[in-house]
């Protein structure tokens, strides 16, 4: 069986989870580029990160959160996904709350954090879930574009039994020149699955853990 992963991935982890009999190829379908912006005072704001790319670009630009919760300028950090959480940990910062996706984060903020002011450090193609929902509840929210996502739109001539997707922009990039039909489709999360369903009537298998290992376990259960 041949499986396409639409991002560069640690093949040792893949082989460990799926076994040596499965042939796996990684092809990048998107690239991210940090945007240079002047750092500014984060005082009295809570910070939102919805991707590891956003975290990395944030620190490249010289921002530094204040994690001293006894300070008036303390920054709570909210993030989406374990990969984003790990990126923050690499830079020495923890998280106040980790949610599975932007929809879950939006619900949590509306229910529990209405009096906070939020800065969302994200890419130019970030979904408008928070942008659409939080201001309607009179919650102060600002999106800060800190990286750009480039869709590479590769033409892929090889045939695969299954393809694995990790973001809505990755789905769009792949689908520009390649068919999604006749292939088993696996997705890291519901947001990515929704993008796939817009473009094909094929069944989409969605991982529940939003991690590479959870996707690989899902594949193992369906092949």
UniProtKB/TrEMBL annotation:
<dbReference type="InterPro" id="IPR036108">
    <property type="entry name" value="4pyrrol_syn_uPrphyn_synt_sf"/>
</dbReference>
<keyword id="KW-0456">Lyase</keyword>
<dbReference type="Pfam" id="PF02602">
    <property type="entry name" value="HEM4"/>
</dbReference>
<dbReference type="InterPro" id="IPR039793">
    <property type="entry name" value="UROS/Hem4"/>
</dbReference>
<dbReference type="GO" id="GO:0004852">
    <property type="term" value="F:uroporphyrinogen-III synthase activity"/>
</dbReference>
<protein>
    <submittedName>
        <fullName>Uroporphyrinogen-III synthase</fullName>
        <ecNumber>4.2.1.75</ecNumber>
    </submittedName>
</protein>
<feature type="domain" description="Tetrapyrrole biosynthesis uroporphyrinogen III synthase">
    <location>
        <begin position="37"/>
        <end position="212"/>
    </location>
</feature>
<dbReference type="InterPro" id="IPR003754">
    <property type="entry name" value="4pyrrol_synth_uPrphyn_synth"/>
</dbReference>
């Amino acid at each position: 069986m041949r499986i396409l992963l639409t991002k560069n991935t640690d093949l040792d982890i893949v082989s460990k989870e799926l076994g040596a009999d499965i042939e796996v190829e990684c092809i990048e379908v998107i690239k991210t580029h940090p945007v240079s912006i002047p750092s500014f005072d984060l005082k009295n704001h809570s910070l939102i990160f919805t991707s590891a790319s956003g975290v990395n670009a944030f620190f490249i630009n010289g921002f530094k959160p204040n994690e001293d919760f006894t300070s008036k300028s303390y920054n709570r950090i909210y993030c989406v996904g374990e990969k984003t959480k790990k990126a923050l940990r690499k830079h020495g910062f923890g998280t106040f709350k980790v949610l599975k996706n932007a929809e879950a984060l939006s619900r949590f903020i509306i229910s529990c954090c209405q009096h906070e002011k939020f800065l969302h450090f994200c890419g130019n193609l970030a979904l408008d879930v928070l942008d659409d929902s939080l201001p309607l509840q009179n919650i102060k929210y600002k999106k800060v574009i800190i990286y750009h996502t480039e869709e590479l739109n590769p033409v892929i001539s090889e045939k695969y039994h299954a393809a694995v997707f990790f973001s809505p922009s990755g789905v769009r990039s792949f689908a520009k020149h390649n068919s999604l039909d006749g292939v088993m489709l696996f997705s890291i999360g519901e947001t990515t699955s929704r993008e796939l369903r817009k473009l094909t009537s094929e069944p989409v298998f969605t991982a529940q853990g939003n991690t590479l290992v959870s996707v690989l376990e899902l594949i193992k259960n369906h092949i």
